[in-house]
Specification:
heterodimer; A: 1082 residues; alpha+beta; nine-stranded mixed beta sheet; six-stranded mixed barrel; 28 helices; 13% strand; B: 233 residues; alpha/beta; Rossmann fold; six-stranded mixed beta sheet; four-stranded antiparallel beta sheet
Chain lengths: 1082, 233
């Protein structure tokens, strides 16, 4: 018995293997479709897990921080120590970072840490000194020389010696935002910690003990982080206090020191100034003394001079008197002399009588009676002679005049004086007397003259001497006086300068004291620092990556199932067909006495081999190719290591088993139902499917008019019920998949246009540095001058809402001016495009949020602020929107809900199209009135990237759908042919041409295909809707409608494959050997 | 020159190194309107000859001349046309299209021919007027075979080839079939060739060709062929 069994076993195995060989095409098709279905299903399902696994491994490898702490007052080693004490914290490292400009681009410079956030060196080497840096491999190259515009580094002219990848920056073109430049960080640099000018840490990195073993992005990780954060609160408070006190103490100490210094200086200055003053005073005193002395001297001298002068004057006076006297005497003498000369003349003149004997009157008379000639002669004589008498101008012919004159002469004083001294009575001696008198006089005069001359000389000498002395002393005085004047002037200047300096001194120290006081005040005002805790979610690109993998995951939930279903269906069909065909064979075995299970063995083996091997190959290929293909699509946008396959065995094994079980069960079911028959009936050829009248035939009106081929086709269509079902379902499935694929593409691309052309029309969003109640003229000007047009003020704040306990973002927006805002944001119903209005007793929410919360108009929804405080708001309207979620409300309703006035903090606006957005951003940030500027352009770019990736994935899916369609059609057609091989052979015998034979078969297939495609289009709409709602992220609403052209595409694709298959079928039919096919069962 | 001339016909199957000589140098000729029976045991090669004659198989060597046409030289396409217009075939197991009524089965064949006979008339001829709208599944074996014959005749072929037409039928039904075939040969002047291993049937033929091991054993001419009515087995 054993031997028999074993023998049978061998036989059956041989049978199975031969069967595989004989129907290799069929085996392959089963194999292939299993591979496709399983591979695709498991592959796509694994993809998002693989993507997450790769990244979380990367993060674990490089010890990516769990927390990044930033304090408004910085950190010191003391803070690091406190954190190190926490038992749930693993590594703690203090580090630095600064943002600065490098040739007008904003870069972030970070310190190279030891354990946390390890870098991957792409090229070059590590820096050895402060002049060498590591740089972002996506931006820089080894050898680049950079100048960093910041005072916070010791070395600002640096060279890139190595390029790196950092686990903090995983997204290619998103390196975070900053307050400088155009607000976007263009790249990062790593430098040695020693290169930072300050020792105070700008940040602290932390890793947790528990989180080390948890995978990034998982719920467990998030929960662990939240727990850890709560645990840290105490430590952080401690840090805050410590630092606060430290800073305050330091500051106060500094102020004290400064104060002391000031005091010292002040004293120094004061002493200096005093010295100066003293000197000045002394000089003053000296000057005064000297002045006084000089004055006294001057006075004395003056007195002396005065006296001398007086004496001189006196002398002069005396001299003058004497001189005058002398002159008088000289005059007298001259007169005397003149008279003498007259007398001498007279005496000499012989004409004249002897006057000594005449009396005066006689003389006069005589003179008077002188003849004219005598007078003339006398006068001539007088004139010619050297006489001292001046003759008057009288008319000497006028005797009266002469007389008068002579009388005058006679009666003159001199005459009288002469008469006194001369005795005129003695006329004989008169001349001699006179001569003597005159001589005496002359002698006296000469003496007097001499004396006077002497005296005059002496006087002159004296005077000269005096003058000289005077002059000397004058000039000396002047000199001294001038000196004193200068001295005084200098003193004056000196005093003035002193005054000024003193004033300065006073002011200076007054200011210094004011400053000190201010500083004291400031120190008093120092607030406790804020410590901000950032997690990985705040890293640029971290959440984006998660979103992308979630998208893939969502797609993987739906599409592959379909694949699997279709694959299973085809598999079933093939296997059941095979079993049916083997009736005869099974009959033989049964008649030989083999048990059912032994007969089944072949089929079990066949199915097993096909599905197991198919699954294995499918898994091998699918789980490596698909994740890699999809990952590569994303690797363009991210800076990540190569894909790490996690090989989720659960999915793989599950899928394989599922496929296996399904296939095997149907095989067995079919086989068993066949085996139910008696061997005899099995051995008989199976009665071919009976012909039956078709429904349409009953409408003889139509039936009569149909041509023969059509009648045949119609009948044939309805002949194999299972085939109709299978074909339509299979084709429909493929068309549906294709349509859903195209439709997905439409829905995704459509939203960009819709959102950013019709709904969100503003070009820029500006966060202001403080809140406004309205835009004043100044601010408007500032905005306009920096490239902003038509700004309108709004309030926008981030809130949360919950979907199944998970927090999701929503932006609360309150416009300051509803009409202005309406220019920029279109609020309308999606379906009927009716405009939506604001109201004061409710909010307008975006459609996706409404869907997420299952909220309708009139419902209340709950939103949470950043402090987790709850608010209930009433939904008044639902507006069309595709990207992100918003709640719009009036300020009235805002006040009602939040119990405070609205503080408008943002501006939405257009931009000057002639300006470059980097320019606008930079210049706005430079005004320091703006915290952040973001442009729709950038957001558009981000979305476009995301959509491009999604499109690529859709393409992958479409290709697979097409492959599936291909395989299904091939399978169905082949089966159909095998079923009707006798019929087809008969046609050939009858002389049907190859084309006619093919058409005969294919007409039915074509009609069924078209029907199936139409059904598929219909189904595809639902599939599309289903996929859309699954693949969407919670903040995106894909367009729900499919473009008309997509229907055409999907239809055409199906038809195209059908045609390709038909060509293939044609050749297959051609090859059918009539004789073999018609060989009767003998 | 006879209507049909077979000269040195050979059909050899090569399977690797093994050669199977199904037909090994066969010569015979058939005249127009003759009813010929090819007789022989199973595996003798008669079906092979019929298949070659009917254009369903090709000869390895030799000549097959039908009405002046060298069938062995025909291309694939020409062979199809040959089968289409010149040949009518009747199988042992009828091979009717299940999805078509009796009449439609006949029409299937007639509508591809250039000079067919009216399907309805032919149905009448074979005595199946009443059953023309029934499906093969609703017909008895004999009726099905008649439909098959009708189908073959409707083509108005030069040759009517029948491979064991009565093989699946009881003797009574079989006889009626043979009657029909004989009638066709006689009244329509069609050249009918019947293959059988039943020597009794050979009596109705004008010529009996005995085939053994791929060669002609004997060619007998019946000067007075029996009426099909009168034979029995």
């Amino acid at each position: 018995m054993q031997r028999k069994l074993v023998g049978n076993m061998k036989l059956l195995i041989k049978e199975a293997l031969r069967k595989i060989k004989l129907t290799f095409g069929r085996f392959l098709s089963v194999f292939f479709i299993v591979a496709l279905g399983v591979g695709f299903f498991a592959g796509i399902r694994n993809t998002s897990d693989d993507m997450l696994f790769t990244v979380s491994s990367y993060f674990a490898d490089k010890n990516l921080m769990d927390f990044r702490l930033v304090s408004t007052l910085g950190f010191t080693d003391a803070d690091v120590e406190i954190l190190k004490q926490m038992p749930s914290i693993n590594d703690v490292e203090g580090s630095h970072y600064i943002d600065c400009l490098e040739s007008s681009k904003a870069v972030r410079i970070l310190g190279i840490t030891n354990k946390i956030n390890q870098l991957t060196l792409v090229d070059g080497r590590n820096p050895k000194n402060n002049k060498e840096v590591l740089a972002d491999a996506t931006v820089y190259e080894v050898g680049d020389e950079l100048t960093l515009n910041t005072p916070e580094l010791k070395e600002t002219k640096v060279k890139v010696v190595g390029t790196v990848k950092s686990p903090m920056y995983i997204q290619f073109n998103n390196k975070g935002t900053t307050l400088i430049g155009n607000g976007k960080i263009s790249g990062f640099l790593y430098t040695l910690e020693s290169n930072f000018s300050t020792n105070v840490y700008t940040l602290i990195y932390l890793t947790g003990k528990d989180t080390a073993s948890l995978r990034a992005y998982t719920q467990e990780y998030q929960a662990s982080i939240e727990k850890l954060e709560t645990k840290m609160t105490d430590a952080l408070d401690q840090l805050k206090m410590r630092r606060y006190n430290e800073i305050k103490t330091e500051a106060r100490q500094k102020i004290e020191d400064a104060k002391q210094k000031i005091e010292e200086e002040k004293e120094k200055y004061r002493i200096e100034l005093e010295t100066v003053k003293n000197n000045l005073d002394q000089t003053n005193k000296k000057l005064q003394k000297t002045d006084k002395e000089i004055n006294e001297k001057e006075y004395a001298l003056n007195q002396e001079f005065k006296q001398a002068n007086q004496e001189l004057l006196l002398a002069k006076k005396t001299l003058a008197q004497k001189t005058a006297e002398y002159q008088k005497n000289v005059e007298k003498y001259n007169q005397y002399k003149a008279y003498l000369e007259c007398v001498e003349y007279i005496y000499a003149y012989d004409h004249f009588p002897d006057l000594s004997k005449m009396t005066d009157e006689e003389i006069v008379f005589y003179l008077l009676n002188l003849s004219e000639e005598d007078i003339h002669q006398f006068l001539e004589y007088m004139q010619q002679g050297d006489f001292s008498i001046e003759l008057p101008e009288i008319d000497y012919n006028d005797k009266e005049a002469v007389k008068t004159y002579l009388e005058t002469v006679f009666n003159s004083e001199i005459m009288q004086e002469i008469r006194k001294n001369i005795d005129f009575t003695n006329k004989e001696d008169l001349l001699k007397q006179f001569q003597k008198l005159v001589k005496d006089m002359e002698i006296k005069l000469d003496n007097a003259k001499e004396e006077i001359a002497k005296a005059s000389n002496l006087l002159q000498e004296k005077e000269q001497f005096l003058n000289k002395k005077k002059k000397e002393s004058q000039s000396a005085l002047v000199k001294y006086k001038k000196e004193i004047e200068t001295g005084y002037k200098q003193l004056e200047d000196g005093y003035r300068e002193y005054e000024i300096n003193y004033e300065k001194f006073e002011i200076q120290f007054k200011d210094a004291y004011t400053k000190i006081n201010q500083q004291i005040k400031q120190v008093d005002e120092i607030e406790k620092p804020n410590i901000y805790v950032f997690t990985r979610k705040d890293n640029a690109g971290y959440e984006e990556y998660k979103s992308d993998t979630t998208r893939v995951n969502n797609i993987s939930k739906v599409f592959p199932i379909f694949f699997l279903l279709v694959a299973a269906l085809v598999c079933l069909n093939t296997m059941s067909r095979m079993v049916e065909e083997d009736r005869g064979q099974m009959g033989i075995y049964k008649s030989l006495g083999l048990k059912n299970r032994q007969i089944l063995f072949t089929y079990i083996l066949y199915a097993t081999v096909a599905t197991i091997f198919g699954s294995i190959i499918g898994l091998l290929l699918g789980c490596t190719i698909l994740p890699n293909v999809i990952y590569n699509i994303y690797s363009f946008m991210y800076v990540l290591p190569n894909l790490k396959l996690e090989n989720n065995f659960f999915t793989m094994i599950f899928t394989t088993i599922l496929m296996f079980v399904v296939t095997l069960s149907i095989t067995m079911y079919t086989a068993l139902s066949v085996l139910k028959n008696t061997p005899a009936s099995l051995l008989r050829p199976k009665a071919p499917a009976k012909g039956k009248k078709v429904l349409i035939e009953k409408i003889s009106f139509i039936w009569k008019r149909l041509n023969f081929s059509f009648k045949v086709t119609t009948r044939n269509i309805f002949r194999y019920k299972k085939r109709i079902f299978m074909t339509i379902v299979g084709i429909a499935g493929c068309t549906a998949l294709t349509l859903a694929g195209f439709g997905l593409k439409d829905s995704i691309t459509g939203i960009i246009k819709k959102q950013f052309n019709t709904i969100t029309k503003y070009k820029a969003t500006i966060v202001l540095d403080h809140s406004y109640q309205e835009l004043d003229k100044d601010m408007k000007e500032v905005l306009e001058n920096n490239g902003i047009t038509n700004p309108t003020l709004i309030y926008q704040e981030l809130y949360n809402y919950k979907i199944k306990d998970k927090n999701n973002d929503v932006y609360l927006v309150v416009p300051s001016n509803i009409n202005e805002m309406k220019q920029y944001i279109t609020l309308q119903h999606r379906k009927d495009k009716e405009k939506v209005d604001f109201s004061d007793d409710g909010v307008i929410i975006t459609e996706k949020m409404a869907l997420n919360l299952n909220a309708g108009i009139g419902d209340f929804i709950t939103i949470y602020d950043t402090n987790k405080k709850e608010y209930q708001v009433k939904v008044k309207e639902i507006t069309e929107n595709y990207a992100y979620n918003y709640i719009y409300l009036t300020n009235t309703y805002y006040e009602k809900i939040f119990d405070q006035k609205v503080n408008y903090n943002m501006v939405i606006s257009g931009i000057d199209e002639n300006k470059n957005i980097d320019q606008i951003s930079e210049s706005l940030l430079n005004t320091n009135k703006v915290l952040n500027v973001s442009f729709i352009e950038d957001i558009l770019e981000k979305f476009n990237d995301m959509i491009n990736n999604l499109n690529k994935i859709v393409l992958v899916i479409l290709i697979c759908s097409c492959l599936l369609a291909f395989v299904v059609l091939y399978n169905l057609t082949t089966i159909n042919i095998t079923e009707r091989i006798r019929e087809i052979a008969t046609l050939k015998v009858l002389g049907f041409h190859d084309k006619e034979v093919s058409l005969y078969v294919y007409r039915e297939t074509m009609i069924l295909t078209i029907l199936g495609a139409l059904v598929g289009l219909f189904l595809g709409i639902f599939l599309h809707q289903f996929v859309i709602t699954s693949a969407e992220m919670e903040f995106i609403m894909f367009q729900r409608n499919i473009n008309s052209i997509s229907y055409v595409y999907a239809f055409l694709v199906t038809i195209l494959f059908s045609l390709i298959i038909s060509v293939f079928t044609h050749y297959k039919l051609k090859k059918i050997n009539m004789i073999e096919a018609l060989k009767s069962v003998e | 020159m006879s209507y049909i001339d077979i000269k040195k016909l050979k059909k050899v199957y090569k399977m690797g190194e093994i050669e199977i000589k199904a037909v090994d140098g066969v010569n015979f000729s058939i005249d127009k309107g003759e009813l010929v029976v090819i007789l022989g045991p199973s595996g003798a090669g008669k079906t092979t000859i019929l298949n070659i004659l009917g254009g369903m198989d090709t000869a390895t060597s030799g000549q097959v001349i039908v009405d002046g046409k060298h069938v062995e030289k025909l291309s694939r396409k020409e062979l199809i046309n040959y089968r289409r217009y010149d040949i009518g075939f009747v199988f042992q197991f009828y091979n009717l299209v299940q999805n078509l009524t009796a009449l439609e089965n006949v029409e299937l064949a007639s509508q591809i021919c250039t000079n067919p006979l009216n399907a309805e008339d032919v149905m009448k001829e074979v005595g199946l007027e009443e059953r023309k709208n029934n499906f093969p599944a609703q017909l008895s074996g004999g009726e099905q075979q008649r439909v098959a014959i009708a189908r073959a005749i409707a083509k108005n072929p030069k040759l009517l080839l029948c491979d064991e037409p009565t093989g699946a039928l009881d003797s009574k039904t079989g006889k009626s079939i043979l009657e029909l075939l004989q009638k066709t040969a006689r009244t329509m002047g069609m050249t009918v060739i019947i293959i059988t291993h039943n020597s009794v049937i050979a009596d109705i033929a004008d010529k009996v060709i005995q085939v053994k091991n791929g060669t002609i054993a004997e060619i007998k001419i019946n000067k007075k062929p029996t009426d099909a009515k009168e034979i029995s087995w």
